[in-house]
Amino acid sequence: MSRIGTVSPFVYIAATPKGRRTFGLRQARSERALADNLRRDKLVLLRTWKLPAALASVPRLTLKDQVELNSQLSMLLTRGVPLVESLEVTATVVSPGMQPVVERMRELVQGGTSFADACRKVGVFDEITVSVYQAAERTGDLGGSAAQLAETARRQQAIKGKAATVMLYPSVVLTIAVCAALVLIIGVVPRIGEAMEGAGAKIPGYTRVLVEVGRFLQAEWLWALAGVAGVAIVMVIARRQVVAAMGRFSRSLPALKQVILVQESARFFSVMAALTKAGVPLADALGAAIGAVRHPRLHAQLRTLRTRLVEGGVLHGLIDKVDALPLATRRLLMAAERAGDLDTAFDGLARDMADELDRRTSRLMALLEPAVIVVMFLIIGSLVLALMIPMMTMSNQIT
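Request: output the structure for the sequence above.
Response:
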């Protein structure tokens, strides 16, 4: 898939409305395009230095940009504003990194390219979004489809926020615990060990190990830091394997596996609601939406459903075999399929799954708080006990 390609980074000096000078770094397809972008921010370009195109970063369409872009397009298009003018306005509400992309889309549409093809050519939209735009152009309801995509992006943003909330609390607490443990091991343990040795006290094996580790980290801190950096580099290089391993571990935990399944189900139904409401055929919508599911069991069952549906299977019976979904969800989908109202069912299930995710996330946080405190005590408390017990019995051990 082609990118906007000709974008290059520029270092620029510009004048503010008050006559002051400001400088910065932005990406644009040309110096003229950069001047146009700065003019929207009420800046006048004075001088530029073009950097090598290899230094240009690949623009990313974040969920926030998706919400802003589709919300703006929906509001303007449903009020009769032409698409080219709508894109011109939309370029002002997205992040600076996405402004050249939207400008390129506007130029392509102005030159006669369809909106969906323009989205595909700039290369930052996924196939799900492009499929919705293609179907919307056929039905003539691009504004309505943009509104549905904005709602889907908001739901996915909320789902992502819930996952971040679940991971943030234990990560912060455990980081604090590890840092406190390192301070004890490096700064306190060796001194206490030296005092015990000087007093002729017998040091237990576990305490001696901590003392030696602390001395090593004091003396060879550079090598220790290099080791940590090496582990970090390996994890970055093998991040896919690391993420996959963490995913398998998370799905094996009783408290987490249901939360993850609900999260994946909410994402799937949100995407299906957007695609079916835009008029995408069910088999094509399933093919695109399955790509948004990362839960192995649900992904495999949905893929089997789509394959058998394309081969001529009856949807009513195929839905019942997707036992990764709750029985109530399957029965609701089967009833909606008989009534011919699947798009409404997908939308309702997306909302229900989002509400269920809220409830399960709240319960998980209630479980995590005491569990993290226990882990924190095991990390720091074991160090404190390893030092305090020998100190309390030192008077009986002095020879």
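The two ends are 78 Å apart (CA to CA).
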